[in-house]
Amino acid sequence: MNKQQQKQKFIEELLKKSHRSNPSNVERILRLASKEAFRVSNIQTKEQRISSEIPRDEEMESKNSTNKKENKKKIHNPKKVVGFLKFFTLDNSNIKLSTHLWDQRLYTTYEDFITKLEKDLKEHKLYDLQNYSYNLYWNKLFPFLKQDKLTDIQKEGDYGWGKHKIKIGWQFPDIIREWCKTHFNDKGELAKQPFSMEIPQELKPEKPIAGKTIKYFEDVVNLFKKEIEFRDNDLYKEFRIITKRDLKAESFDISGLESLRGCSFYTNTEYVSKAISRVFKMIDSRPESPRISIFCDYLEESNEYHIKITHVNSFCNKDLRHPKLLLQNNEDSGDIGAIKNDLMSLCDFSIISKFKKDNKIVFAEIEYLYKGVDNKNYKPKVNIIESEPEGFTFNFKFPV
C-alpha cells in the first residue's frame, strides 16, 4: 500500500468515527482531504507534463523492443527501398555527402553536416524503411548514418554493423566529432575532411577485408557502399564465390555466369548473397542433375534486372498444393520461406517447375514476392503455364 492509499484509508476511518461523535469534525476532515487531493493532483499533473517534455528517440526505443524479434509490420515494395537508396547519388543531398568527398564550402563544422544530414533523413522518412527491409535499416543505414548511442540490447552484446561488424559510424562512437574539433571545424582551406581520419586501433577490423586493410574512415565508407549496392561486376564476382563455396559436387557444369557482368543495382547486398547461397545449397543437394543455367537480362520496360537460376532437368515431385510449397502451417522456416524472408522488399521472387496435380503433371510458376502481395494475409500466387520448363527455376526481379 503506497502513501496515498494509506492516507485515504486513514481519512475513511476518521469519517466513520466523527460521523458518530461530532458532525462538525466531518466538515473539517473533508475540507483538509480536499486540499490534500488538490495538492496531489497538481503534483501528478506536473509529473505528466515533465514526462511529456522529455525528448524520446523513437528509433532507439523501437530498436530496444524489436531487436530480439522482428515483429514490426513488413511491407513488400522493392522500388520503395531502391528509391531511398538512390538518395546516395542525388546531387546536393546531404545523404549523398555521407559517402562522397565534400566541397570545402559546404560545411564549416561537423555539427553543421550532422544537422543537415538529420534534416534530410527526417524529410525523406528514413525511419519508415524498417517496415520494408528491417535488416537494411537497423544493421546498415541506422548505425552508419544516425545512431549516436548504444541500445540496451547492444550494451549486452557485441556491437557492429553490416556484414563485417564495423564498429564506427558517423555519430557513434564520438570519434569523428572529437577529431573534427581539431582538424576540421572552422579551419577553412586548412580543414581536413573526416574521411581522412585514421581509425583508432581498437575499432579497426582484426583482418583485411577483400584484401584491403581498413585504416581510414574513407575505407569504412567504401565498405558501407558495398553493403547497399552491387556495382559493375560485384554481383558476377559474388556468384563465382558462392558457387565455388557452396557447390560441393565437382560434377556441376555452370553456364551463363558471364551474363551477370555489369549487373548493377541498389539493394541489401548481404541478404541477396544469403538468398543466392541458399539456392545453390539446395541445388547441391540434388547432384544427380549436374547442369546449372544462369541468365541475367535488363528489362527496359519495367526498369529491372531479371535473374534466373535453373537446375536443368531437375523438377519438383510435390503436389502443387503441398503446404511446403504454399508456405502454410508455419512452413515459412524452410528453404523457400527463408529465401522469401531474406528478399522481402529487395526483389520479386518466384519458382518455376513441373508439379503434380490431380495425378497429372502440370507446369506452373509460384510467386512468393510480387507486386500487390497482401502483407497482412500473405499467400503465394500460383500460375499455370503452357511451356515446359527446362528445370527447377528460381526467378528474381530487381528494380534499378
Describe the structure.
The protein is an alpha+beta fold and 400 residues long. The chain is 39% helix and 14% strand. Strands 2-4-5-9-6-7-8 form a 7-stranded mixed sheet. A two-stranded antiparallel ribbon has the order 1-3. Helix 1 (3-21) packs antiparallel against helix 2 (23-53), helix 10 runs parallel beside helix 11 (269-284) and helix 11 (269-284) packs antiparallel against helix 12. The relative contact order is 0.09.
Descriptive labels:
12 helices; alpha+beta; seven-stranded mixed beta sheet; 400 residues
- Class computed from helices, strands and strand pairing: alpha+beta
| Global morphology | globular
Total beta strands: 9
Summed up, the helix count is 12
Uncertain runs with pLDDT below 50, 5 residues or more?
37-57, 65-71
End-to-end separation in angstroms reads: 63 Å
> How would a crystallographer describe the biggest sheet?
7 strands, mixed
Integer average pLDDT: 86
Any idea what the radius of gyration is? 30 Å
Give the neighbour order of strands across the main sheet: 2-4-5-9-6-7-8
**Fraction of residues in helix:** 25-40%
Helix and strand element order: HHHHHHHHHEHEEHEEHEEEE
β-strand amount: 5-15%
Give a short synopsis of this structure:
By secondary structure, the protein is an alpha+beta fold. The protein contains twelve helices and nine strands.
Task: Outline the secondary-structure elements.
Layout: H1 3-21, H2 23-53, H3 58-66, H4 78-85, H5 110-123, H6 134-146, H7 152-156, H8 175-183, H9 217-228, E1 229-230, H10 234-246, E2 253-255, E3 265-266, H11 269-284, E4 291-299, E5 304-312, H12 335-342, E6 348-357, E7 360-369, E8 381-384, E9 391-399
Parallel strand pairs: 2-4
Antiparallel strand pairs: 1-3, 4-5, 5-9, 6-7, 6-9, 7-8
Helix pairs in contact: 1-2, 10-11, 11-12
